[in-house]
Records
---
Amino acid sequence: MSEPSSLPIGPVAFIGGGNMARSLIGGLVARGVAAGDIRVAEPVAALREALQRDFGVACFDNAQAAADGASVWLLAVKPQVMREVCASLAEQARAQRPLAISIAAGITASQLDRWLGGEVAVVRAMPNTPALLGVGITGLYANAAAAPRFDQAAGLLDAVGPTVRIDEETQMDAVTAVSGSGPAYVFLLAEAMQQAGQAQGLSADAARALVRQTLLGAATMLTQSEEPAEVLRARVTSPGGTTQAAIKTFEAGGFRDLVDSAIAAATRRGRELSAANE
Ligand SMILES: NC(=O)C1=CN([C@@H]2O[C@H](COP(=O)(O)OP(=O)(O)OC[C@H]3O[C@@H](n4cnc5c(N)ncnc54)[C@H](O)[C@@H]3O)[C@@H](O)[C@H]2O)C=CC1
Ligand SMILES: O=C(O)[C@@H]1CCC=N1
């Protein structure tokens, strides 16, 4: 195994050490980033202890202490507390001129810039929890001040999966709805398939094993094949066979419309989170 490397961008301070921060930190450390380059502010003692124990990162009970000396701040708190957290860091932002990367759903770059005191290099990033395993994907949008530092943000997030640059900030809500929230839709499908398998007489263990490996296999085909999803689907669907019976049932039940409405609702919710926390 290679030695942990220092981040080329210097120390990173995570402000918030909850679910998504944990996935990112775990992914970065597993990919060889030195734990000593990662500082975390998290008010919940049990979460601090777990992060320290599992990844060896330095944890603090307040944002200012973690941010001190860090050239990149990764803001990983809920949208509802972002304004207050940024206000508490505004003085330090003026002195340190950090690159501020926010992963909060909805909260805009101009809100973050204003709350941090103005003239701040802000990148909005929308990662997802598979980052923990190095198979996340992150949408990235940079404000004008962050444009020269875009590569720093991309370099950091690239460690936990590919990144996609987004030029229109308004599209970040759609990114959130598709890939930020997306793993939850797949987990919902897994739950539903497992229950349905049990309803057809399978044991819980057998249903679980069949569903998990089927999702892994399908996702692997989707990512490793040049062919689009509909072609891969057609190959499973024998005319007059079992798959066709299931697909017809999905279509008759409005599956595509339902997915469309769900993703539209998530996109809308992103916009609401921005307005509600103004
Ligand atoms: N969970 C996910 O899959 C994803 C979440 N996000 C975004 O990441 C952000 C965090 O979400 P989660 O990790 O799911 O939430 P979470 O609730 O697990 O984590 C937020 C953490 O911030 C901490 N916190 C609260 N006030 C703080 C303060 N003043 N200073 C430092 N830390 C403070 C909380 O104690 C909590 O542990 C949200 O803005 C969300 O929109 C983005 C992409 C995916
Ligand atoms: O549910 C949420 O609001 C966050 C953003 C994307 C995933 N989790």
Note: The chain has a mean pLDDT of 96.
---
Amino acid sequence: MTAEPRTASHATSPILQITDAVKYYPLRGGLFRQRRNVRSVDGISLSVAPGESLGLVGESGCGKSTLARLILGMSSLTSGHIDIDGIDVSSVRGESRKRLRRTVQLVFQDPFSALDPRMTIGRSLYAPLSQNRIGTRPERLQRIIRALDDVGLDPSFINRFPSQCSGGQLQRVVIARALLLEPQVLVCDEPTSALDSSMRSQILNLLAALKKRYNLTLVVISHDLRVVHYLCERVAVMYLGRIVEIAESEELFKKPRHPYTRSLINASMLEEKGLVGCASARGEPPSPVAPPPGCSFHPRCPIARPECARALPDLIAISDGHQVRCPFHSAVEEGDSLANRTDMAEMR
Ligand SMILES: Nc1ncnc2c1ncn2[C@@H]1O[C@H](COP(=O)(O)OP(=O)(O)OP(=O)(O)O)[C@@H](O)[C@H]1O
């Protein structure tokens, strides 16, 4: 691995600004037909600088993909505001939706389902260019060849069908398709979870190199902490629709301050030792339909006190760029940290 993936860039104004984003899905039915909601995203505020990479981590169901869909304008906000490069994502229609597509693109999790098996790679790549009326036919072909070259594939892939490609090659095609409209922001939802470990490193290296070459802003969603540790300058930890901790990647993995972040890191290290299936924190995550009162992590928290059940703690700044939603954060032990592990180096 040669590229230096993580470099900080905070001086400029944000390209992505999320302000108090809420997404509730109404639940119908139930015994007394009462109105209830799944609180998928429950008041998230974030800003991401141009060229920065932000990781979103948390257990399954914490709202990572919902937040990604909101950023991409694929789902509407219940309340709050999302702005990408001056585009108000919540009110995009017609031409501004096209502008949004040219600004932010999604790298899908599963390359096998992301591409139509009946279409050649060339036709799959041609479609977004013709839909957005970009260039003449020869210019579109040139763009496709350049995008394939960017991801390390030669022009012969234009005539191949997905079934004639490996999983790693297909993920490269998916990344090429995301790059075709020259976006500034790439949202990568579990970009390597469908790949084996050797392919995973290659795709991570490719994303890091592309970020550097095109000054891309990355929002990386992953349950694999090593992926965000490798690719991201900052990491936000989500629990039940809220951010519980956010910090520069190195700081977060060396000095996690929220008990939930600590337990995620512990679980990640146990999984690497082959103890798969171990819970990241004791018990199951509570239902997002009826989250516990106060701090929603308190029923599973090893350092919970009676007052944790009473009021939702604020996200408080404990050092420059490091915020944590726990007033008892100083009781969280540092212990062994993911950032100190030698096997983290193997990702590079
Ligand atoms: N369309 C929907 N209707 C109702 N509930 C939904 C919908 N989409 C997501 N949810 C619920 O919102 C919560 C957050 O889901 P989301 O997929 O965003 O979590 P996640 O962190 O991305 O999980 P995973 O890692 O498993 O994809 C879950 O409880 C999920 O069941």
Note: The chain has two domains: 16-85+184-347, 95-101+114-181.
---
Amino acid sequence: MAPTPSPAPAPAGPFGMAGAGALPSRLAQFYALTKPRVVQLIVFCAFIGMVLAVPGLPSRAQWGLMAIASAGIWLVAGAAAAFNCLVERHIDARMKRTAWRPTARGELSNRQALAFSALLCTAGSALLYWWVNALTMWLTFATFVGYAVVYTVILKPRTPQNIVIGGASGAMPPVLGWAAMTGDVGAEALILFLIIFLWTPPHFWALALYRVEDYRKSGLPMLPVTHGSEYTRLQVFLYTLILFAGCLMPFVYGMSSWIYLAAAVLLGTGFCLYGYWLWRDYSDALARKTFRFSLVHLSLLFAALLVDHYVF
Ligand code: HEM
Ligand SMILES: CC(C)=CCC/C(C)=C/CC/C(C)=C/COP(=O)(O)OP(=O)(O)O
């Protein structure tokens, strides 16, 4: 009888199996479920919300509060990502990009992934409730439900607008950060929410364009599969234009000075150019560059808010 083929070795996955190289392999598998690189940027955006909520330099106590709030948001966001990996294990197994995930490969059982997600969510919520404030805990928990249930379970398999509506949960971090420091939700935080909300469609659809075969196999109704490449590229371009306008709002509202404005104009022009080129002259390589640029755009834009806040 032929021996049962053993599964191919897990490739170094994009979400940190490689980055977690020094960790024992079991720990690395759990860590990979938290989609570490995505969650890092999420926590960074939450941190900027915290920084902007405190006029001038934070006190020692405020630095402490920021650290605890960041940890709490990190844990709950990781829990949401792990829950997504559990729910989508069969879909992930059909896509090249995600087939390496420990849940897709059956290396972690459903029970283990669920327990891990519940543990992180409980620990993060407890931190936020006892050491930050109840509003932040409830808003973060609502964000967990928004991503893990509303986006992953309800919207993603049903509508190509899944990531537009579901993007609202990804846009919450600055609101969570602001609430952690003030116990309130300020207009400034809502402006940052709007920026991430408008950024999400070009961020995701650029990726979906060059991963279209993966999404076709997955059975998910992503825009390039349901409406084709040209329509998706037009949407990407239009969103980069609206995003450009949205990114001017912190300056118009008086939250920032010319330092942020210069960064917003430069980064926005870059993203619009990518959107335009992609629309007019598509290639997978350009779509990949546009996706990568989306990450640079958001990271530097929020870093500019930080610099601006402390310089002015
Ligand atoms: C519903 C909203 C969103 C969707 C559907 C989405 C989708 C995706 C997908 C599919 C990837 C995987 C790329 C790959 O495997 O090569 C990705 C990567 C990434 N996303 Fe998003 N994203 C969303 C929101 C966000 C938000 C709000 C942030 C941060 C604020 C973010 C940050 C990142 C980062 C940093 C990566 C790169 C990960 C890596 O290099 O390993 N995303 N996104
Ligand atoms: C509490 C809190 C702040 C929660 C944040 C929720 C969260 C992790 C939002 C990020 C969005 C994200 C990882 C999208 C990936 O899309 P996908 O899930 O469609 O990608 P996939 O195909 O890689 O699974």
Note: The chain has two domains: 31-185, 186-312.
---
Amino acid sequence: MSERVFISPSKYVQGKNVIEKIGSYLRGIGTQTVVIADETVWNIAGHKVVSELKQANFSAKEIVFNGEASKEEIKRITQAAKNEHATIVIGVGGGKTLDTAKAVSDELDAYTVIIPTAASADAPTSALSVVYSDDGIFENYRFYNHNPNLILVDTKIIAEAPPRLLASGIADALATWVEARAVIAYGGKTMAGGITTIAAEAIAEKCEQTLFQYGHLAYESAKAKVVTPALEAIVEANTLLSGLGFESGGLAAAHAIHNGFTALEGEIHHLTHGEKVAFGTLVQLVLEKHSLAEIERYIQFYISLDLPVTLEDIKLKDATKEDILKVAKAATVEGETIHNAFNVTADEVADAIIAADQYATAYKKSYRL
Ligand SMILES: NC(=O)c1ccc[n+]([C@@H]2O[C@H](COP(=O)([O-])OP(=O)(O)OC[C@H]3O[C@@H](n4cnc5c(N)ncnc54)[C@H](O)[C@@H]3O)[C@@H](O)[C@H]2O)c1
Ligand SMILES: [Zn+2]
């Protein structure tokens, strides 16, 4: 299998107050929309989207998302959207809301509009959803025959979101190049169903460059709730560059290890996707045998953005060897993305998890962090 495949959304729009233009972007597409957002996001952006739609003569059915991108939730919202004969499905919120909106839109064969309210993960652009059990355990990737039609990224809303969400998005995006370059080196398959194009490789590499250049300034901008060129750069890196870069560039160990962590119970469930991916990325770097300086470059960057680097940081201080092996086994099940770039056993992954924790703990100790 050697064909190169690159996929992408039809239109990506990013800037301050862009949601005010939703009516003009949807002109001629249809008139019956459903808008999906969780309780928090309804007040932050959902009502504003609906009022813009109504002003532009669209009808909009409001649906409250319950918080988990699960089969049951997708079924429930699909039924509600069918009752409205919706031809446009609009997801507003974080990755789980957006993944649910994509699935609902697929069921209805509708036009898909994605409005992320945080740059917290690279979910907006892809032609797939990550599906979980109602208890938040990773179940499967669900693939679609096309990417979202329209993505509206309003940087005013994103600047006002909690800085922790932006940092999480940076961590998710930092995994993109680490994973893509591993897949390229191995000749593995990407989420787009082929091997990596030069285009996706360039995007993924540019993603990492942008993060190291502007990550700190953007994080400080988010703390001050202001839109700056650095914030705009990081929103694009977290959303567009990371989204295209992971999907057509390739996922490898970092995300498989993230998925493995969802199999554990306890406080780790309160961590964001990006925070778990940060630790997963460190584990992948350990598996790859990099120099101390290279590994420390990542550890230092994560720490400076208040991201987790040790098992204690991800609430697994008391994890047993069996727990770690459970994670490693889940990360290496057949079909997991780790096999796109590594020929490893669960045992080797478990050792890398323990070593990553040990390296980061030693780093923190030596700098008294
Ligand atoms: N489909 C894909 O390609 C893809 C890619 C990456 C991640 N994902 C998935 O996305 C999910 C992670 O997304 P996430 O990190 O956004 O988490 P999330 O969707 O679980 O949660 C985001 C949280 O932030 C809140 N929020 C959103 N915007 C806000 C704002 N402006 N102000 C205050 N609070 C706000 C939401 O209410 C929600 O509680 C995971 O399920 C992951 O697997 C999917
Ligand atoms: Zn991710």
Note: The beta strands are 11-15, 32-38, 59-65, 88-93, 111-116, 128-132, 138-143, 150-154.
